[in-house]
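Reviewer comment 2.1 asked that we show a complete input and output for one of the modelled complexes. We chose the pyridoxal-5'-phosphate case, as it is the one discussed in the main text.
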Amino acid sequence: MKTVLTIAGFDPSSGAGVTADLMVFAAHGLFGTSCITALTVQSTMGVRAFYPVEASILSDSLACLDDDLPPAGIKIGMMGTRAAVATVCDYLERLRRRGSDIPVVLDPVIRSSSGRELLEPEGVDLLKKRLLPLVDWVTPNHSELGWLTGRSDIKSKEETVRAAEDLQREVIGHGGKPLNVLATGGDIIPPDDLLVTLASRHHWMSGEHVETSSTHGTGCALSSALLCRLVLGDDLITATRNAKSYVAEALRSAVPIGRGRGPMNHL
Ligand code: PLP
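Response of the prediction step:
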C-alpha cells in the first residue's frame, strides 16, 4: 500500500488540518502519515489561537518517518512559522538531492476563513522564495493568490490567469521548475470555477455550487484529494477533475454539526 504524508496543523474540531487530510487519504485507499507543524485552538466557530510545534520536533518527525515509511507523495498545509517553512524546505531539498520525484502539493494556508493569521509574514516571504520552487503544485484560493502575488485586483477570470502566470514567473525566477497552479474561484464570478495552469496552458473547469454551511477545511481536502489522485496515477487534468468531484461530494453529503462552519463528509 502506498503511503502519503501530510505536513500541516492540528485542528481539534477535525474539520481541517492533518485530521481532515488523513480522512481524505483513507477515503482514497492510501495510508496516511502526518507531521504536525502547529496546534490550533478552534471549533466550527473559527480559529482562536495557534501554538507552533518546535522546529526540531518537526524535523525529527520528518526524518523518522522518511527512514521507515517513505512517502509516495506529500501534501503541505498550514505551517504557522518561518521556522516550519525552513524545516520543510530542508526536508524537500534532501528528497530532491536523492533524486526523488514524488508529487508535492502545497496548500498555501496564510489565514483561516474566520480571519485568523495562520502563517507569520516572514513565513509567507520564505514560502514564496524557497518553498514554492520546491513543490509541483500550489492550490491557492482567491485571497491566497492575491497575497502571494501582491495583487489586490483579482476580480475576474482574466486577472486570475494573470496572477497565476505571475506566480509561475516568480517561481522560475527563484530557480524552480514550471509550477502547476490550481486556483479556486473563491468570490470571483462564477464562484466555483477552478483554473488549472500547467506550464503556459490554462484550463477552466466550471464549478457546481453546493449550498451548505459545512465548508470548513475545503482547501485542505481539495489539495489532499489532488495529491491522492496524482499518487494513484491520474494525469494532471484528470487528477484535478477527480479531486474537484471528491470535494463536491464531500460537501453534498456533509451532515451539519456544531454551531458554525462544520466539517465536510469524508466517510
Ligand atoms: N486550521 C488548520 C490546521 C488548517 O490547516 C486550516 C486551513 O488549511 C484552517 C484551520 C482553516 O480552514 P478554513 O479556512 O476552512 O476555516
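Strands lie at 3-10, 31-43, 46-52, 73-76, 104-106, 137-138, 180-184, 194-198, 201-205. We note this here for comparison with the apo prediction described in Section 3.2.
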